[in-house]
Amino acid sequence: LPAGPRFGFASRYNGWQVMQPPGYVIILQEHNHNYRVIPIDSKAAPLGKGIQLWAGDSRGRWEGNTLVVEVTNFTDKTWVIGEIAGEGMSVGTFHSPALKMTERFIMRDGDNIDYEATIEDPNVYTRPWKVAYGIWERAPKGYENFEFACHEGNRWDELVGATDKK
Q: Which residues are 8's β-sheet partners?
């Protein structure tokens, strides 16, 4: 996975499920078995500075209709904005363990969520920078996430009602 922002959000074969059990937001991604567990309880202790993770340590809070997620404790072995549609690191940029990412999941309406990320790393960038785009719209009725290993035989066109069969 790239350090962020999470460009794998949009894809024809990439279903997502968002759950909110008490104290957490959990995001499950169909592609590659990716997932995030984001504590939103202020009592959840942050990780120590010496613990560095591939996708960082996420801590969230709600600001009105926006889930704000502060991510720190990154390893420097990942790339920012890598792995867009499988192209790998060629599209990304390096960072240091000082990387801090602030993500905003903005509930635009009952069917759409927009995404915004502010990237800060004083060891690499001269100033913070930002990306923003729409990431999710509600799945069609009857859609379900499949195990990634079994996805090859699924009929996406039938799920979404596509008419141009090849």
A: none
Residues 41-72: pLDDT tens digits? 877 777 888 899 888 899 999 999 999 999 99
Say whether 156 sits in a helix, a strand or coil: helix
SS in 3 state form for 21-68?
CCCEEEEEECHHHCEEEEECCCCCCCCCCCCCECCCEEEEEEECCEEE
Nearest residue to 142 (alpha-carbon basis) of 32, 47, 15: 15
Lowest mean pLDDT among 10-24, 57-71, 136-150: 136-150
What 3-state DSSP class applies to 150? helix
The whole-angstrom separation of Cα 61 and Cα 56 is: 16
CA atoms within 13 A on the CB side of 74: 26
